[in-house]
Amino acid sequence: MEKRRLSFWQIWNMSFGFLGIQFGFALQGGFMSRIFQTLGANVDDIPGLWIAAPLTGLLVQPIVGYLSDNTWSPKFGRRKPFFLIGAILASITLFFMPHSPVLWVAAGLLWVLDSSINISMEPFRALVADKLPESQRSNGFVIQTLIIGIGTWIASNLPWLVTKLGVSNEAAAGVIPQSVVVAFSIGAFVFLISILYTIFTTKEDPPVDLAQFKLEKKESRFIPDLVESFKEMPSTMKKLGLIQFFSWFAFFTMWSLSTPALTEHVFKSPKPTNQEYARLDEQGEVLKDDANQVVFLNSAKAAEYKQKDKEFNDAADLVGSATGVYGLSSMAFALLLTFYTTKNKINRKYIHMGSLLIGGLGFIYMYYATPSTLMYSFIMIGFAWGSILSMPYAMLSSAVNPRKMGMMMGLFNMFIVIPQIIAALGGINFFYKLIGEEHINAMILAGISLLIASLCNFLITDKQAISG
After folding, report:
1. 159 and 179 in contact (C-beta within 8 Å)?
2. Which residues cross the membrane (predicted)?
3. DSSP class of residue 3?
4. SS3 287
5. Do 384 and 152 meet the contact criterion of CB atoms below 8 Å apart?
6. What residues does 280 pair with on adjacent strands?
7. Is 282 exposed, middle or buried (0-12, 13-18, 19+ CB in 10 A)?
8. Positive or negative, the Cα torsion across 52, 183, 159, 193?
9. Residue 205: left (phi > 0), alpha (psi -120 to 50), or beta?
10. What is the pTM of this model?
11. Is 405 strand, coil or helix?
């Protein structure tokens, strides 16, 4: 039975929770590396500290997808309970994250944060396929991308904005600036409110055959269903998985290393290390006083550290703002596609291929960028990001069993998290150092990865998946 077509505002309401999800992702992606550096992490150790994020997705998303496939409540629906649980946990974690006293606490909270975001996120993907007919799915995923772009731009600019409003972005050595603390608190509030908006404005449809649904739910078992879903994975899903592999390797590289790479190479303001300015004990560790403050060699060194740290924090704010530009351009990309896909079909394959190509060139241009031209890199990257968040899911939704949409969306996430795990376990450091030792070469690596992802689109041949 063909699902009824929904209006723009009905699709907007059911997708609005992604604003909060993207606030969480943008703050995590734009500022976690800054937090790690502030708490004493070396740059080459940062990707490893990020490993919690993809590992959590690998474990959480198939389980959440399976549970939401097998959930139905006349009062709460199928996907909405998972939106709410994830939102509550993520909002609490966002609030406490910038108060982390030491590095291991921040790394642990990143684990909790990413788990919570994942609980909310994949059910949102499945909701589009649940409620929209085939003819509106491209439009539905594009509207999600539009909202994601808005969230990315606003959240990425939050520390810069609150600094402009008078909140300090300076702090003592090893202390996270107040501007970041306030930005994460705002993010926590927006995350919860936007999810609640979707919950209260969107009604989920019951299974077409409720008796059959209850029978299948009674007979379902996670491990056998997981194995069966692996066996049923269509070839189009596997080919899309290869595209996703190189796409998400690129973006994980950006999230984990863009702040140190760009503050160093573009703004010439690297994070000063405490060891250069402070007194050290016999083991080479930085000495701290009774108030847990760094003991500097002398007042001149303390003043020099403070000045260089201010320059780094100013540069990091500007990198965050520049990063937010890719949210704006992905929003523009989504807005154009929203108008077009409302009444027309598109070739998802070639749109995705071209967008990834543009994004790859944007990463490579970072090597030549100046503070005033860096935004052009992120404008180009935004086209890739907008497409990554919509076209693969639109193609996937046309190629898999609709009764297992949540499980399949969860399994599809493997092709997102596995490259991130490989990157975090040393893949980034190994491959970018083949190009050169400077951290900016990690952005070159990200560009090459996106170009490979673009070419992999030639593998997609399923006409139903391509046209929509």
Report:
1. yes
2. 12-36, 48-68, 80-97, 103-121, 141-160, 180-200, 240-258, 318-338, 350-368, 374-396, 408-428, 440-460
3. P
4. coil
5. no
6. 286
7. exposed
8. positive
9. beta
10. 0.74
11. helix
Q: How many residues does the chain have?
A: 468
Please check whether residue 120 is in contact with residue 91, taking contact to mean a CB–CB distance below 8 angstroms.
no
Torsion angle of alpha carbons 38, 44, 49, 54, nearest 10°? 130
Backbone angles phi, psi at 467, to 5 degrees: -100, 125
CA 209/CA 381 separation, integer angstroms? 44
- The CB-side HSE value for 239 (13 A sphere, CA atoms) comes to 18
Question: If you write DSSP's letter for every residue of 284-324 in order, what string do you get?
Answer: SPBPB-TTS-B-BSSHHHHHHHHHHHHHHHHHHHHHHHHHH
Q: What is the largest CA-CA distance in the chain?
A: 77
Going along 233-283, which residue ranges are E strands? none
Per-residue confidence (pLDDT) for residue 468, from 0 to 100 = 63
Interacting residues of 422 by C-beta distance below 8 A, sequence separation 6+: 249
From the list 401, 390, 464, the residue with the least C-alpha distance to 65 is 401
Query: What does the domain layout of the chain look like in residue ranges?
Result: 8-205+215-461
Taking the C-alpha atoms of residue 360 and residue 337, their distance in angstroms, rounded to an integer, is: 21
User: Distance between CA atoms of 466 and 345, rounded to whole angstroms?
Assistant: 10
Pick the CATH number of 8-205+215-461 from 3.40.190.10, 3.40.50.720, 3.40.50.300, 1.20.1250.20: 1.20.1250.20
DSSP H or E stretch at residue 71:
none
Report CA dihedral (335, 155, 390, 72) to the nearest 10 degrees: -120
Amino acid at 402: P
What does the pLDDT read at residue 405? 67
3-state class of 278 per DSSP?
strand
Q: What does the pLDDT look like over 245-298, one tens digit per residue?
A: 999 999 999 988 999 999 999 999 988 887 777 787 777 777 777 767 777 888
- Residue 265 is which amino acid? H
Residues of the chain with pLDDT under 70: 1-2, 53, 209-210, 213-214, 216-219, 222, 291, 342, 400-407, 468
Structure tokens at 440: 């900016």
Residue recorded with tokens 């998972």: 82
Say which amino acid occupies 90: A
According to the model, what pLDDT value does residue 438 have? Answer: 94
